[in-house]
Every structure is written in C-alpha cells, then in structure tokens.
Design goal:
Blueprint (H helix, E strand, L loop, with lengths): L3 H5 L8 E2 L6 E2 L4 E6 L2 E6 L2 E6 L4 E6 H8 L3
Antiparallel strand pairs: 1-2, 3-6, 4-5
The structure holds zinc ion (2 copies).
Length: 73
C-alpha cells in the first residue's frame, strides 16, 4: 500500500503505518506519532487516586485526524 497523502500529490511512497482513526495509509513523512498517557487507579484507604504510569502508549494518526483530535485544546 502507498501513502494516501503522497498519492494525492502524485507521488508513490510506500506506507509504513495506518492512521487508527480514518485508516489512511501513511509514509514516515505524513504520520504523526502521539504518546498517550496511561493511568492506573490505585485504592488508597477509602479513596481512589489515579497515577500516571511512566510508560506512554504510542498512537499513529494522520495530520487531518491529529488536528481534529486536538482542535479543542
Ligand atoms: Zn506521504
Ligand atoms: Zn486519519
């Protein structure tokens, strides 16, 4: 499969990843790798606290979906 964005520009670049939101095939130049925090609930006494774990979870999205996901921020 070739990169969808490159194909739109008349180029044929092999895709190395797929956007998990829209399913678009992406080359290294057009993918955006996000690092999502991972949370763990821990019960402390009577309450529950959330702690952020040191390792993040990678997520590959395309530029359009990246903007859509972050437009509120
Ligand atoms: Zn591309
Ligand atoms: Zn996408």
């Amino acid at each position: 499969m070739n990169c969808y964005i490159c194909a739109g520009q008349g180029k044929e670049t092999p895709a190395v990843a797929i956007c998990i939101v829209c399913g678009m095939a992406l080359c290294p130049d057009h993918l955006i790798r996000e690092e999502l925090p991972v949370w763990q609930d821990a019960t402390v006494g009577m309450g529950v606290t959330r702690r952020r774990l040191p390792e993040t979870m990678p997520r590959i999205v395309c530029e359009a979906c990246h903007h859509a996901l972050h437009q509120a921020a």
